[in-house]
Design brief:
By secondary structure, the chain is mainly alpha-helical. 32% of the residues are buried. The termini are far apart. Helices cover 74% and strands 0% of the residues. The protein is elongated and about 60 Å long.
Length: 227
């Protein structure tokens, strides 16, 4: 709301037919007080945008699939606060979604720094490197995340799945079994094999998962679908 405009309108309406600065119908004393208040409002400025305001505008733009405007808003937030974590996170996600990987990697690296080298940050950076076709850099980032928090589930699982996709099964199992049950380890290996079109190996792993945990419904469903 523009306070200056409101005050000007109010003052104009009150001064119609008057030859001085008093407001019609009031005592001189009250008029002086009111005019002093007008003077105060005249000096007020519109509320300034801060990082949170730009972040909210960015989220609104994202919800409307207006990604260029979302990026612009998150960058405006970061101009005001270079370590505004929510804006860094969303900016990195948007760049990743748009497959603008160099910009996404830069944003994730800034996010890692802003979160004091969090395991979550390293996990997201690593996954972005994976999507960009940079497995060596992804592995480095996953290892840094695990060093920060050995029990970080996403880091362990994503690293294990990447190793499995590259045929490093023994290493993959070590990572997966650190945070998953034996049945879940076999289920995840089966999922990788299925995605790679290696159906017979996928069936073997799904069966092992079901043998270890008969209540693993997803394994039964996916095994049934490829048999």
């Amino acid at each position: 709301m523009n306070y200056r405009l409101l005050v000007m309108i109010a003052a104009t309406a009150g001064l119609v037919g008057c030859s001085d600065n008093a407001v019609k119908g009031l005592s001189q004393d009250d008029a002086d007080k009111l005019n002093a208040q007008h003077s105060h409002f005249d000096q007020e400025k519109d509320p300034q945008f801060n990082a949170n305001t730009h972040f909210a505008a960015g989220q609104l733009a994202e919800s409307q699939d207006d990604f260029p405007r979302a990026i612009a808003q998150y960058n405006e937030a970061l101009k005001l606060d270079s370590k505004h974590i929510p804006s860094l996170y969303r900016l990195a996600l948007v760049y990743t979604r748009l497959k603008e990987y160099p910009k996404a990697v830069d944003a994730w690296e800034r996010y890692v720094k802003a979160t004091d080298g969090s395991a979550e940050g390293y996990n997201n950076l690593a996954f972005c490197h994976e999507l960009a076709g940079e497995p060596d850099k992804a592995e480095t980032a996953y290892k840094k995340g695990i060093a920060k928090d050995p029990n970080h589930q996403a880091c362990r699982i994503n690293y294990g799945l990447m190793l499995a996709r590259h045929g490093r099964t023994s290493e993959a199992i070590i990572q997966l079994q650190a945070v998953l049950t034996p049945a879940q380890v076999h289920y995840n290996l089966a999922s990788v094999y299925e995605q790679q079109g290696r159906k017979e190996q996928a069936k073997i792993e799904y069966r092992k998962a079901i043998e270890l945990d008969p209540n693993l419904i997803d394994a039964k469903t996916r095994l049934s679908a490829i048999e």
